[in-house]
Amino acid sequence: MSRFLLIGPPGAGKGTQAARLAEAYGIPAISTGDIFRFNVKNETELGKLAKSFMDRGEYVPDSVTNDLVRDRLSHEDAQAGFLLDGYPRTSDQVNELDSILADQGRALDAVIQLTAETDEVVRRLLNRAIEQGRTDDTEEVIRRRLEIYEAETAPLTSVYAGRGLVVMVDGLGAIDEVTERIREALDARLGVN
Ligand code: AMP
To answer: Which positions are catalytic?
Structure first.
């Protein structure tokens, strides 16, 4: 009972929360953004391709991202559960994830929607740019990433809401508080099932 998605705008704190939730539930946190960044750092072919999109704040093409996730979810450590952070982000990716899980005879247990105000996420992202030096955290690219999130990813919430899977959690506040909020919301949801 621990197949979760974590969806939210850039800067909502997905990565931070994903690592903590993965630990709490004993499942791997699988972040497509982290996998792309690892490949960029190691200058692989995938990394070169991904970088050209990431540096502009655009999404890496679905075909590439979908293959990567299908492969990752076939690994042994993801069989008992997983937390996907930053995937799916497009309706094509939603369809692919449905197909991957159907092939495995599995289903999602919950979709955690982390909410945050635009002003706050921009502030956080600009801070992160200073702290971590991410090349996609410049003001112009941040604006583009938020635009694409609104156009492509925000509408996915209603798809999962229609399936009764969405757990909405306010991403503002101290890191510990937000983790606790998510755990309570998830436990309440899983408890009633
Ligand atoms: P993130 O760390 O999740 O904010 O992702 C950083 C960047 O990686 C995004 O702005 C995209 O360029 C790329 N990326 C991560 N996940 C996906 C995805 N599911 N689909 C397409 N591109 C992605």
So the answer is: 14, 89, 128, 134, 145
